[in-house]
Specification:
single chain, alpha/beta, eight-stranded parallel beta sheet, two-stranded antiparallel ribbon
C-alpha cells in the first residue's frame, strides 16, 4: 500500500484536504467568511497537490501514476467547491456592507440660492448632497459654507467630473483633490455617474453615455479600482440620461449597469427620473429595466422633474416631480431598503415651500413601506 512521505515539516496532503473541508463547513456556517474569501485558497491547494504527487512519483512511480489521478480529481473538486464558496462569501460580505450603511432619510441636493430658507426649515431635511466640484480648489467663502453645512447636516459628496468611463484613466490631480474632500467630510458613502466626461485630455462638460460593451465594463471597473486606492469610502454609481445610444452594444443598458456595479462591488444610485426619461425617449419598459438590475445594491434614489422640448423629455432638473416618477419611487421603495432619497432641483427654483412639500411627500412614501420613521 502506497504511503505518501511525511518526513518533511509539511503536513501530508490529506491533512490539507481535511483542513479545507473543515474550512468549507465553517464558510457554510457563516464563520470566517472574510479571511477565507480573501485568502487565495485554490492556488494553495494546487501547490499541495503538486508537491504530494511529485513525492509519490519519486517513491513508487508506477503506483503513484495510478493513485495520482483520483487524488488530483478529488483535489480539483475540493478546490472548485472552495472557490465557489469563497466567491459567494465575498459577494455576501459586500452586500452585508451595503446593508449596514446608515439610513439617512430624505434630503436635498444643496443649492446656494436656497441656503437661508434651508436653515429656516432644516428640521424637514434629513441630509444634504453636495456637488463635490463646488468645493475643490474652493475660495474661502465656499470653504466656510462647507463647514457650516457639515455642522448641521450629514453631507454626501456627489461627483460629476471623475469620468469613470474614460479609457485613458482618471485625472490624478482631480482624484487627489476629490479624495481629500471626501476624507475631510468622512461621509457614509459618495457617488459618481456611470459615464465619461473627458476624452483625450479634453473636458467635454457633459455626462456622456458609454457603449454597452464588456470592454467599457472593464474600463469603468479599472478606474474605480484606481479611485479606491485613495478613497476607502463606499462608492455608489448613478444611471444617466442620454440622447443617443452608442452603437456596438453587447448588452442592454440595465445589464450593463448591473455588470458594472457587481464587477466593481459598488452600490447603485438609482435616479428614477433618469429612468423615466430614458424609458420615454427610447421607448423601453421601465419595469423590465428594473427587473434586470441588482436592486439589492440600491443605496440611494434621485428624483425631480424635467421639461419637454420638441417632443423630447429633457433632464433639466427644472420642474416639480411628475406623477410617473412618484409611482416609480413608490414601486422601488416597496421592494428595496433604500438608505436615502435626494431631490435634485437645479433650475427654475420655486418657493422653498414647494421644495419642502416634495421632500415631505417622498418621506411619506418611504414611511408607508417602513423605510424610516
Amino acid at each position: 500500500m502506497l504511503e505518501l512521505p511525511t518526513t518533511t515539516t509539511e503536513k501530508p496532503f490529506f491533512h490539507h484536504l481535511r483542513l479545507i473541508d473543515y474550512r468549507v463547513e465553517d464558510l457554510i456556517a457563516g464563520k470566517e467568511a472574510r479571511p477565507i474569501a480573501r485568502a487565495v485558497v485554490v492556488p494553495a491547494v494546487a501547490r499541495v497537490v503538486a508537491r504530494s504527487i511529485a513525492r509519490a512519483v519519486v517513491v513508487v512511480p508506477a503506483v503513484a501514476r495510478v493513485v495520482a489521478r483520483p487524488i488530483a480529481r478529488a483535489a480539483a473538486v475540493v478546490a472548485a467547491v472552495v472557490a465557489v464558496v469563497a466567491v459567494a462569501a465575498v459577494e455576501d460580505d459586500s452586500l452585508d456592507m451595503l446593508s449596514h450603511l446608515p439610513t439617512l432619510g430624505v434630503g436635498l441636493g444643496f443649492r446656494e440660492p436656497f441656503r437661508s430658507d434651508l436653515f429656516l426649515n432644516r428640521g424637514g431635511v434629513d441630509f444634504l448632497e453636495i456637488v463635490a466640484e463646488h468645493y475643490l480648489d474652493a475660495p474661502p467663502q465656499k470653504e466656510q459654507e462647507l463647514e457650516l453645512l457639515a455642522a448641521h447636516f450629514p453631507l454626501i459628496p456627489h461627483a460629476i467630473n471623475l469620468s469613470l468611463g474614460s479609457a485613458e484613466g482618471l485625472d490624478a490631480d482631480y482624484l487627489g483633490k476629490l479624495a481629500a474632500l471626501i476624507k475631510q467630510l468622512n461621509p457614509p458613502w459618495w457617488s459618481e455617474h456611470i459615464c465619461f466626461t473627458r476624452a483625450g485630455g479634453v473636458d467635454i462638460g457633459h455626462l456622456s453615455p458609454l457603449p454597452y460593451t464588456r470592454e467599457a465594463v472593464e474600463v469603468v471597473c479599472r478606474n474605480i479600482e484606481q479611485a479606491r486606492r485613495l478613497i476607502d469610502v463606499p462608492l455608489i454609481l448613478e444611471n444617466i440620461t442620454y440622447m443617443l445610444t452608442v452603437p456596438g452594444g453587447e448588452m442592454t443598458e440595465a445589464q450593463f449597469l448591473a455588470e458594472v456595479v457587481e464587477r466593481s462591488d459598488c452600490g447603485l444610485l438609482l435616479d428614477v427620473t433618469n429612468l423615466h426619461i430614458n424609458g420615454v425617449n427610447h421607448n423601453y419598459d421601465v419595469h423590465t429595466f428594473l427587473s434586470q438590475l441588482p436592486l439589492e445594491r440600491v443605496v440611494q434614489l434621485h428624483f425631480v422633474g424635467g421639461h419637454w422640448h420638441d417632443g423630447v423629455l429633457i433632464d433639466s432638473h427644472s420642474h416639480s416631480t411628475p406623477v410617473e416618477v412618484w409611482k416609480l419611487m413608490d414601486e422601488v421603495l416597496a421592494s428595496v431598503p433604500v438608505k436615502g432619497i435626494v431631490l435634485e432641483r437645479d433650475e427654475n427654483l420655486p418657493p422653498f415651500a414647494e421644495i419642502s412639500a416634495e421632500v415631505e411627500r417622498a418621506r411619506k412614501i418611504g414611511r408607508c413601506h417602513g423605510r424610516w420613521v
